[in-house]
Amino acid sequence: MANIRQKNYRIILNSKILKKEQRINAFVKLGELLDSVEFKNDSFLESLVHKNAWYTPSNVKQQIQAIANNLKKEKLENWLKDVPNHSIQKSVGLVLAGNLPLVGFHDIMTVLLAGFVAKIKVSSDDAGLTKFILDKLLLIDPDFKDKVLFVEKLENYDLVIATGSNNSARYFEYYFGKKPHIIRKNRNSLSVLTGNESDQELNGLGHDIFDFFGLGCRSVSKLFIPRGYNITRLMENLESFHEIKNHSKYNNNYDFNKSIYLINKNKHFDNGFLLLKEDENLASPLAVVHFEYYDRLERVEEFIIVHSNEIQCITTDADLSNIDVPVFPLGASQHPTLDDYADNVNTLAFLLANQ
């Protein structure tokens, strides 16, 4: 064990010193590559669905495009204005989720651009996608070679960022609790409708619900709708997403939940690929969105305040106040900017406070 520890520290201490400008330039070039037609047509991206059925080509490419949109020099320089010019001789252990393609890329990017070494433990669901992208970064700038380490087990790290379920978070707290850490649990997102939404905004809500099959923490799992709201109009505006039913795993969840509701005589709305069920719970099963009626927006704000530690973000055109949860326009939940941090915890500030 002592030999392993000594070897790992030697890698870090002898690694190339990367100035901030060099780090930024490498990621800008990576963004240009990810944005290219040639890259998006790479056969590897098409093959991922055979390893993870949720990693469809369209979902993978959507995530890659979202990353590329953020890897612009002006955006990165503004975001990293408080980051020191020198590399940090510390390593960050990263335990990544795999529910969405490249869901942990923002953490990796933040660690590397802040000048730290990234020790990465990917999810078994990752299908090799994270390494595929980071291998492109190493081709762009080989000086990152000693900054990007894929590991089976986290050892000899200085800080930890771990993402998992509520159950795994208890294990993470026990295992990583003695080090500076960010530990993320399950979260869901919700939308607040007012009845004044345009058809275009309701179509945007469809993206908040259906993008990435609703598997992400930024996916809307609950709606607040004003009493007397015309749910039929909502369902009609979601009809354009009907092709999601052609995905066998998603449709299996839809059929299962529909059968349960029918057997239990649970009142619900059904448009053939989505079930709307009146329910107080924030989290909903896959292919189901819970909803609650409200008479006053203050009632919705009270719910948000009580459940703020369970909510990733909110999409709405309503004027919400006195809440400490990120709010986006309808249709924007899956398009976070560089400083839209998971769980509303500033990852970059955490790193800089522990450099």
How many discrete structural domains? 2
Give a quick account of the main beta sheet: strands, pairing sense, barrel closure: 7 strands, mixed
| CATH class type of the largest domain | Alpha Beta
Arithmetic mean pLDDT: 94
Q: Between the first and last Cα atoms, what is the distance in angstroms? A: 26 Å
CATH topology of the largest domain: Aldehyde Dehydrogenase, Chain A, domain 1
The topology string of helices and strands comes to HHHHHHEHEHEEHEEHEHHEEEHEEH
Structural class: alpha/beta
Radius of gyration, CA atoms, in whole angstroms: 21 Å
Task: Say how many strands there are.
Answer: 12
Give the uncertain stretches in residue-range form: 1-13
Bin the strand percentage.
Answer: 15-25%
**CATH H-tier superfamily of the largest domain:** Aldehyde Dehydrogenase, Chain A, domain 1
Determine the fraction of residues in helical runs and give it as a percent range: 25-40%
What's the number of helices?
Answer: 14
Strand order of the main beta sheet, please? 8-9-10-7-6-11-12
Shape descriptor: globular
The name of the CATH architecture of the largest domain is: 3-Layer(aba) Sandwich
A few lines on this structure:
The protein contains 14 helices and twelve strands. With 355 residues, it is an alpha/beta fold. It is globular and about 65 Å long.
Can you characterise this structure?
- The protein has 355 residues and is of the alpha/beta class.
- The chain has two domains: 2-186, Aldehyde Dehydrogenase, Chain A, domain 1 (3-Layer(aba) Sandwich); 188-328, Aldehyde Dehydrogenase, Chain A, domain 2, CATH 3.40.309.10.
- Helices cover 40% and strands 15% of the residues.
- The chain has 14 helices and twelve strands.
- The strands form two sheets. A seven-stranded mixed β-sheet has the order 8-9-10-7-6-11-12, sandwiched between helices.
- Helix 2 packs antiparallel against helix 5.
- It is globular and about 65 Å long.
- The two termini are 26 Å apart.
- Residues 1-13 have low confidence and may be disordered.
